[in-house]
Amino acid sequence: MKHPATGTDHARPFLPARDFALSAHFYEALGFRILLRGQVVIFSAGTSSFILQEYFHEEYARHCMMQLMVDDLDAWWERLRSLNLPATFGIPEPKAPVMQPWGLRVGYLVDPSGILWHIAERRPGNPSDQ
Q1: Contact 25, 33 (CB under 8 A)
Q2: Which of 10, 41, 108, 119 would disulfide-bridge 52, Cβ 3.0–4.6 Å?
Q3: Is 100 within a domain?
Q4: What does the pLDDT look like over 45-75, one tens digit per residue?
Q5: Domain limits at 97?
């Protein structure tokens, strides 16, 4: 019997946007590539993607977290710092990367809608980081 997930490419979370245009600009500034722009914006980062929606629910946004696995966290951190995101987008200062007790080195970033991004450095040879 064929497994029902066979042929599945990837899951795309829907992210809420308090200010749709501002959030879309934020993700473009970070370097996410736009796959589709319409009533939603579909962004890609490497092989993963997410859908920015023009819908906002405070409770959902405050509890929504995303993880972005990267090869070079120091390069990402320098890029984030160079963008002056707090002044441009009114967000909290990003938190510098540190090693976490669970073994990943992680920096933190909050988007204009309050979504917390964990930007984590991929560990070579660790299948769960792929």
Answers
A1: no
A2: 41
A3: yes
A4: 888 899 999 999 999 998 999 999 999 999 9
A5: 14-129
Mean pLDDT of 83-105: 96
Q: Which two tokens stand for residue 85?
A: 């995101």
Residue 14 tokens, joined: 């829907």
Q: Are 12 and 49 in contact (CB under 8 A)?
A: yes
Q: Specify if 125 maps to a domain.
A: yes
Q: In a 3-state reduction of DSSP, which class is residue 106?
A: strand
> Any idea which residue has 């473009």 for tokens?
28
Stronger pLDDT, 27 or 9, i.e. the higher one: 27
**Three-state SS for 102?**
coil
Mean residue pLDDT of the chain comes to 92
Position 6 in a domain: no
> Residue 65 falls within a domain, yes or no?
yes
> Considering only CA atoms, which of 48, 64, 42 is closest in space to residue 117?
64
Residue 114's φ and ψ, nearest 5 degrees, are: 100, 5
